[in-house]
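Q: I have 63 residues here and want to know how they pack in 3D. Can you give me a structure?
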Amino acid sequence: MFGLSELKQTRVYQEAFQEGEIAAKLATVPRLLGLGLTVEQIAQALELDVEEVSQAAQQQSAN
């Protein structure tokens, strides 16, 4: 039987988990921008690329 611990070791699970972590971080970008942080500060704090944060900021301003 395929248990939870074996599932967590699969590449598919690891990739999905990482994507979820990144999505959660990017979801916080608008709030941090609202607090007055710069894109560079947010990227450093969330351990993301400046480009990723810039894109998230642009999407937020488009909505």
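Q: Anything worth noting?
A: The chain has a mean pLDDT of 93. The first helix runs from residue 4 to 8.
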